[in-house]
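Researcher: Please predict.
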Amino acid sequence: MRKRYLAPLVLSVLFFAACGGGEKKAENADTVSTHESPAADNSMVSPNANKPVSKGETLMAESDCKTCHKEEMKVVGPALKDIAGKYPNTPENVEKLADKVIKGGSGNWGEVAMLPHPQISKEDAKEMVSYILSIGK
């Protein structure tokens, strides 16, 4: 019966001993990190990750646009760069394409229809279209 209680006790003591003095290590880590230069960033983050994100790009990321549209290649709908190449970034085109985003439609890029997005406000649609038309630059 004593062995039954002894094993968990010994394992607990070993566990706490392995943890060591956490507070002293934390203090040492703070003093060491203040004296060392920052390490190089070796993450897998895109080189453009620090560039400011436009409101239109954020809105597109939060919507279902990327399901059918990619920046560089045609998926179900045209590539965003192809759209930017076809339509100059003018107020008239922004207005027209924002209506197309909200109402949907087909025929300009093939037979597959773009679904309507009535939940997107006109202002948000204009922001998204402005972002798309700026991609080609």
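Model: The CA atoms of residues 42 and 113 lie 42 Å apart.
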